[in-house]
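Limitations

Structures in this collection are predictions, not experimental determinations, and the ligand pose is part of the prediction. Treat each record accordingly. The example that follows, with thiamine diphosphate as the small molecule, is included so readers can see exactly what is and is not provided: the inputs are given verbatim, and the output is the predicted complex.
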Amino acid sequence: MGGCQMSTNIVKISPGFEKIMPKDYQDLVNNGPYGRKLALSDLGSFKELIEEHPLCAGCGLALSQRLILASLPDPEDTVIVGTTGCSSLSFAQVAIHNIHSLFGNQNAVATGLKRALKIRFPDKTKDVVVMGGDGGIGDIGLGMVMHSWFRGEKFTTIMFDNEAYANTGGQESGMSQEGAVLYMAPTGKKFPKLSLPEIARASGCVYVAAVNPANSRRLGKMVKQAILIARELGPTYIQVYCPCPTNYKFKPAETLKRAKEKEKDGSCPVKEYFSPEAKEFVERLKEVTR
Ligand SMILES: Cc1ncc(C[n+]2csc(CCOP(=O)(O)OP(=O)(O)O)c2C)c(N)n1
Ligand code: SF4
Ligand SMILES: [Mg+2]
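Predicted complex:
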């Protein structure tokens, strides 16, 4: 990687090394999304930031992660802050700056990073995006998540909501549905799913969305606008329902069907909230309507 500055320089190959670098890397430099304004509708025409991952077949989280990465407005100026969970296994394969924070600390780390980037690059826009599981964001890190919202920190938080602690073998989380039976919650969950979109709204998020990956353009549009709004106005939150075939024991081929069913039956509804300022801002944005 050439230089420490974040721009398209981060992928440029140092002179003399062009032929030595692996084909995959050359492809990223020549056909990757850096420095280009791409949308989900361009998928298939560029080298993606993630193309392989170690997650289970049919994983709704892996699909969501791919779609979210392809929707970043300016990947060359973005740093992702992740945390422990299934997504942390695939972030090792992602061709973008990303930090693994200790489980639950992600919004505190993102706060410091966003502020430091502002000081280091006062004339540039640098996006910080948190991406973590429901355990990391909705349970163990919730205090730090909410305090970043109370403080009005200008970054986006994205939850991969698979309604379980998947990576550790299937414990229930606050985001599991009431009655959910999991490998390590055999008697069924005793209280309802947390209403985190409502909590986010009450805590100061200026844009909040709950969605799933079944309609990829809808997800992509929400991600793009959440990041653009956070740059200008304040914290934004997206909760992505990511069906987990391994812990919920359905066929990997049924992931999207399940996402659609749970949207329809109201157990994982799609929602969107804008503050009045965010609404006005989005109406001025032509880019997100591509
Ligand atoms: C401080 C700390 N506490 C607990 C753990 C154990 N741990 C690792 S992953 C995980 C659950 C992750 O659940 P979630 O955030 O929903 O992510 P998923 O694996 O479901 O994607 C837990 C409890 C840890 N690694 N660090
Ligand atoms: S356990 Fe579930 S969320 Fe984790 S990689 Fe497998 S399918 Fe995806
Ligand atoms: Mg989870």
